[in-house]
Design a protein that fits this description.
The complex is a heterodimer of chains A (258) and B (239). By secondary structure, chain A is mainly α. Helix content of chain A is 70%, strand content 5%. Chain A has a two-stranded antiparallel sheet. In chain A, a hairpin with a 2-residue loop joins strand 1 and strand 2. Chain B is α/β, with parallel strands linked by helices. Chain B has a domain of 155 residues: P-loop containing nucleotide triphosphate hydrolases (Rossmann fold, 3-Layer(aba) Sandwich). The model of chain B has no long low-confidence stretch (mean pLDDT 91). Chain B is globular and about 50 Å long. The chains are: A mainly alpha (258), B alpha/beta (239). At the A-B interface, helix 5, helix 6 and helix 7 of A face helix 2, helix 3, helix 4 and helix 5 of B.
Chain lengths: 258, 239
Amino acid sequence: MHHAYIDKFAYQDSAIHRLDSRVKFIVVLVFTAVVISLPRTTPSILACYAIGPFAVLVWAKIPLRFVFKQILLVSPFVLVLALSCPLYDKTPVRVGFGPFLWAGSTGWMRCFTILGKFVVTMLALIGLVSTTRFNDLLAGLQRLGLPRLLTIQLGFLYRYIFVLIDRAHHILRARAGRRLRNLGFKTELRTAGSMLGSLFIRSIDTAEHISIAMQARGFDGSWHTLSKLQIRRQDVLFVLIAATFMLGLYLFVRPFLQ
Amino acid sequence: MSKAIEIENFSYKYPDGTPALSDITLSVEHGQKLVLIGPNGAGKSTLLLVMAGFTKGNGKVLIDGLEVNRKNLKKIRTRLGSCMENPDDQLFMPTLFDDVAFGPLNMGLAPEEVKIHVAEALQTVGLSGMADKAPHHLSAGQKRGAAIATILAMRPKIITLDEPDGSLDPRNRNNLIKLLAGLSQTLVIATCNMNFAAALADRAVLLDKGRIIADGDAKKIMSDSKLMTEHGLEMASKK
């Protein structure tokens, strides 16, 4: 079965793709922190911050349709949070963007700020995972000090989540093939429990097989890798551009927009 | 000179007391291509696990002259490579390169040597140029080849394969037969597919209910229709 892998565009080639994963991760982390720390009274400034990740996505030739589809997929959780803001905060406020002025409420402003921050940070995050292979990202995180055990767990999770999804699909299909009438809530619940149990037992089985396969190839608990990560001139240049962009916005653009 | 595999009077019971292997005595010469045939539940996979030191029972097991025990396990696993039935269990690393390099790195080889081992193993299975691919992006045939490459990269003297032809289409099965036939290592292959077994092996061991029923020339055993039918198997079709 084919799955929509989160790093499906990470196998392309561009200047952004070739950057060191650690550099990309740190830049995205700092960018996200900066965007999150922006005051909630300035939703309009977020449009300026979106330019950075948007430019990266275009440069790396990541289809924008894919990007917005990914954002839509995770948006329901944030939408619920954002849309609840106008309900409990109706204090009137005037919103400005350059020469334009609107009348609104603090609740709506907070709503737009949450949505804006969500979209901008998601653009940056998708930019990171769409230009960095998952294993390179893990290797980078490990070099940045993330515990090795955690990176191994994440690697296994990414490797086997699709196998698990396939198995779940097979079980669901097998049930659908024999479920010829409505069985009622209780029976459906019992069936779902059995299906989950079967999935769980098969996962344990797989884990045992993997453990045997690892030991058969000499695994003794310590993890050995051939790390290919290297900071080059273009990585330094990328950091400088990103820093200039963020500082530029912070020092010059923000006062004009307020 | 020591034999590739020597098993003497080996018996093993599952934790619930069900006998899995009973009084197994088997000797495999270096360079021999042996198939373990038998119906489902005959004990073929268990016997392969015994050879790799994953299952302990009563009896003596020697791999390339080394007794299978905790002390010799590391050496044994560099001499005997086990290929699992499901390639998804064998390929657990994020990229094909990492997967194939996993064994050589655990053997303590230098990085440059590891790269040479990986390149050669991938070339042998016809997957050169796919080193950076994620295992879940490979087809079933490619996954099978990749699983074998993970073993070949360790350059073992003996390779055990559990149902390697499972879920392969005829073209991929033929490619696998060509690949395995070209290997110089001692091969022990567990399979239920008699055509696959006949195309590869010079010796067959028929297992049923944990016992060795027949041991000898592969073609002779697999052409004995009474013996094959009695043990839930079929004869290999003549080409």
